[in-house]
Structure formats: C-alpha cells, structure tokens
Design goal:
The chain is of the alpha/beta class and 559 residues long. Helices cover 31% and strands 17% of the residues. It is elongated. The two termini are 38 Å apart. The model is unreliable at 1-81 (pLDDT under 50).
Length: 559
C-alpha cells in the first residue's frame, strides 16, 4: 500500500472563461475587469515559501468604481491567482556553497509524506540517513517520479572532483547528484542546513566542491580521556561541516588509551576498548570521515616505556630521557612494529600519522656525546659519517615500511625531518607542519621547493592547547576566518601561491597538555566556532561571503 497521502482538494472552481463571460454579461465590466484579469499561472499545491524570495502576492480582480451588484458578483467568483516568485538567493550554509544559479519557484521543504529515493543501491546509507534526519520516507531504489521527491544519484562526470556535487531544486523536487557517494553525502549536508528549523531549500542549482582534499580535526586522547559518546558527537558535528578526517593521538607520555592485544601491559586503566573504537570508526565512515591514528615515536612514548623501562633511552651518565625510546635497540623496533601492525586492523582508513616530533636525543648540544650508543648504532648501520639524526631518520623510514605494508599514506611532524642527513626521509612521507618554534625547525618553503606535500597544522591559529601553556592561546574562530588560509603554514605569512597544490589541507587540533584545565563540555564549546571557521577556509580559501558577525549569527541559527 502506498504511503503517499493524498491531499484533500478544495472545491474546483469553474473554468475562468465562463467566469469572465458571466461577469461581462452581468455588468458589462469589460474595462474594469481588463486590468484585473490576465493569464494566471497554474496553481501550485505546495504551500512553501522559498528562502530569500518575495512573499506571495494576492491580486484583486473585478473591482468597480461604480460598486454595482454585477461587480460584486465578479469579485466573488474571480479565481485566486497563484503566487509569483522573486529570484531565489544563494543558500547560507557552513561551509558556504561555491556556486548557486538562482531561479524562480517555491523551493522545497521536507514533509513526512515525501520520499527519499536513490538511483543506485550504493546510496542506500546516505538515503536512509538524510531521510531520518529530515523526517522523510526512505523508498529505496526507484525510477518513478513523485511530487516532493528528494532523489540521490550518481553521475558519470569523469574527472570531476570526487567530493563535488550538484543539487537541483526545481518543480517541487530536489535532485542531488555526484560522481561518488561522498559527493552525494555532502549535498545532503547542504540540504540539511538549508531546511534547518523549518527553512526552505531555495529554487535553483548549487554546484559545490572543496578547495582542499584533506580537512581534519585532531584530538589528543592520550593526555585526556574523552568518552566514546563525546567523540561520536564530534564525528556527527564534523560530518555536517564536511570534514573528512578525524585524527586520534592515543599514545603519549601520560597514557596509552586504546585496548591492545599484543601489549596489554602498556594500556591505561581508563581507555577505549576496541569495540568502542570500532563503533567510532564505523560512525565516521558513515559520515565519509577517515579516522587517522597516531602512535608517536621515537619520542612521546612515556606510557609505553613505563611498562618497558629496559627500552628507555639513557644518556652517558645513565639518566633516563623522558618519553624517548632507545632506537639503537632491536627490541624497541619490534615493540613499535607490533603496535603498528595491530592497529592497522583497528583503523582501516588510508592514512597514518607516524609522529616523529621532539625526540629529546636531538635537542642536546652534542647528541653523539650525550648518547654514545646512538652514535655507535648510526655508524654501524650507515657508515662513519652518520650521526644520531641519520639513525632517527632511519627509524622513521623503518616504521614507514611497516605501515606501508598495510597500504597507508603516512605523515610525519615537520620537526621529524632533519637537515644535512645522509639518510633521507622516504619520499612518500607527507609533512605535517605544526611549528617553527622547535630547535632546527625548517621553514615550509624548504619542503615545498623540494616537491614535498604538506598538511597545515599551524600552531599559531589551529592549536587548542588545554591550559594555554608555553605561550599558547586558545584559537578564535574570528582570527581563523579573517586571517588564516591553508597557505599560512607557519606564523602568519602565507607561502607563494605556486605551492598551493602541494598543500593537501589542514587540521584544527586539541592538545591536552594540562588535561584538567577544561571539561569535555568546555572543550566542545571552545572549539565550536574554530571548527566552523576552519571548515569554511578549507572548503574555500577565498574571502568568505559573510562578515564574521553574519557568520556567527548563521552558526547560532544552524546550531
């Protein structure tokens, strides 16, 4: 039985020509009616008023200066004209759509009697999700056409941006088409925002695509425990803002936060189980978000080393170096590779973060003198001219080999790349550029001019560090929105436009250095506008169409 309800129709009026004829016979009101009668457009039974269009205009027909009975009769039986529509305006969404072709029409509103239909069975997940969100009926794969339909379709636009989509609102229906299911999903996010709170999707055609292919949010769950429910809420928020990556930094000096089968001894008491992680990963996948894991090494391994003190790096005096693993020992490499292999099954996405930052052996004045065992291992492996930086680069290359076996694309923090080494970092390692403040940090142009691809984690704008230690300040959405672009990799100055294509995207990051400085709820509130501003600038790096005040008002309206 069809679930489409038939609307009760009003009593049908008599044909217009008969009305006109009788009015003319009754009162001879040709001149009076001539100004009021015309060719009326066919009536639309959809009572929606389009966003940004003029309100419906009600014409009054059959007025007579004489006011005789015939004129009154003509007024009583004249048809009610259908509304006329102003040209639609561009929908307001976060991030803003890249292009909208306006048109005249009523637009589209969700109603419980309306269907979501798909032209390809592979869009069932997207169809069910948006149907549930908008209170529509999911009707599956259908070829028939009904009034009010929302249709999701894949197109054959070869060579198009895989995250692009086209949304057409016309004739009381909506069609979202894209070359991939990801693009279709992003079209449903735009539609969801357009109709939020009883609004209307304006008539016309949206053509949209992101400027940057990688749009991320990184969360430090090692220093601070975040509940699965909180992380899931962020996943939903990220999906609606068209982010496509969630970074999880889950190993550091303070804790190792995900259940391990290969090394359960390293796991903190308060941690995420693999079942909880799988639920997060699956939810993220349903929002077309890849979860990017990070097991940082050879530094930031304090929690792992607490269970394996025999692998702790010690200086020539036997003093332990905080967070640093002794990369001269074979057992150190075995331990890390065990973990990399284990979590490759937990995180099936295409990306992996190897870390590589702040290895304390390279922050002293003479690494070879302070750590003779590292210098000896470097010489033994790479020859008499090799140093501790060569050994550290070789360590990262070896870990990259372990991850590459699982067909992942890897990134490394920029201070994990060293100048003047005989051992070169693997050519496929992407530079995750976060700071120019570390010892030996190289400017972004050094990597770009060498052809290296980069991701923007600029700590000047994109680092939300709990407690604001070390001169950090909580980032503001306004500053990101008005000043930052993906080309601003270090400090406040952008690199040359010729390098734009090498910058794959960026990430807003939460780091929990002083974990108790904020609650989970305070973190969520604090990153709310920075997340929205970063989303806008990764989707379109140009000058935003709205002022900051307008953007804030829109964010508050959309929730």
């Amino acid at each position: 039985m069809s679930r489409h309800r038939h609307r009760r129709r009003a009593p049908q009026r008599k044909p217009q020509q008969q009305v006109v004829t009788r009015a003319l016979l009754a009162g001879g009101l040709v001149a009076a009616l001539g100004a009021g009668l015309g060719v009326w457009a066919s009536s639309d039974d959809d009572d929606t008023t389009p966003a940004g269009s003029a309100a419906s205009r009600q014409a009054t027909a059959g007025t007579s200066a004489a006011g005789d009975g015939g004129a009154s009769a003509a007024r009583a039986v004249s048809p009610t004209p259908s509304r006329s529509y102003a040209l639609s305006t561009t929908p307001r969404t976060i991030p803003a759509v890249r292009a909208h072709t306006p048109a005249r029409g009523p637009g589209w509103k969700p109603q419980s009697t309306r269907r979501v239909v798909v032209s390809d069975a592979g869009l069932a997940d997207e169809g069910r999700l948006v149907a549930g969100e908008l209170g529509l009926t999911y009707a599956g794969e259908r070829n028939d056409v009904r009034a009010g339909d929302l249709r999701l379709a894949l197109n054959d636009d070869e060579g198009a941006n895989p995250e692009s989509y086209t949304m057409t609102v016309r004739g009381g229906r909506v069609t979202i088409s894209a070359p991939t299911d990801t693009g279709v999903f992003y079209g449903t996010r735009t539609l969801k925002q357009e109709v939020h709170g009883g609004g209307t999707a304006p008539e016309g055609v949206v053509r949209d695509q992101p400027a940057k292919p990688q749009r991320g949010f990184t969360l430090d769950i090692a220093r601070k425990y975040f509940s699965p429910a909180w992380i899931e809420d962020r996943v939903r928020e990220l999906g609606d803002l068209k982010y496509n990556q969630l970074g999880l930094h889950f190993s550091d000096d303070q804790a190792f936060r995900i259940e391990s089968d290969s090394h359960p001894e390293i796991v903190a008491r308060q941690h995420l189980t693999k079942a909880e992680v799988k639920k997060i990963v699956d939810l993220a996948a349903s929002r077309h978000i890849t979860v990017v894991p990070e097991i940082d090494s050879p530094g930031h391994l304090g929690a792992v080393l607490a269970a394996h003190p025999e692998l702790q790096l010690r200086n020539a005096s036997g003093v332990a170096t905080r967070g640093a693993i002794d990369i001269s020992k074979d057992d150190s490499a075995s331990l890390l590779d065990d973990l990399l292999d284990e979590y490759a099954d937990v995180f099936p996405g295409a990306y992996w973060h190897l870390g590589g930052d702040e290895y304390q052996a390279l922050t002293v004045s003479s690494p070879a003198a302070f750590y003779p065992q590292l210098a000896a291992a470097a010489t033994a492996r790479y020859g008499s001219g090799a140093g501790v930086a060569d050994l550290t680069t070789g360590w990262l290359n070896d870990r990259a080999d372990a991850v590459r076996a699982h067909d992942r694309t890897m990134r490394v923090w920029n201070d994990g790349f060293f100048r003047g080494t005989s051992v070169k970092p693997a050519s496929d390692l992407v530079v995750a550029y976060w700071t120019g403040k570390e010892i030996g940090a190289r400017p972004p142009v050094e990597y770009l001019s060498a052809g290296r691809k980069m991701l923007n984690y600029n700590d000047e704008y994109l680092y939300y560090v709990l407690g604001e230690p070390n001169d950090f300040a909580y980032p503001t959405g306004r500053r990101i929105y008005q000043q930052w672009t993906p080309r601003v990799l270090r400090g406040t100055a952008p690199v040359a436009a010729k390098y734009d294509a090498q910058i794959l995207g960026g990430s807003l990051s939460v780091w929990c250095d002083l974990a108790n400085s904020q609650t989970q709820a305070q973190v969520a509130a604090g990153i709310r506008m920075p997340l929205r501003a970063t989303s806008q600038k990764l989707w379109d790096a140009g000058t935003p169409p709205l002022t900051w005040t307008q953007f804030t008002a829109l964010a508050n309206r959309l929730g």
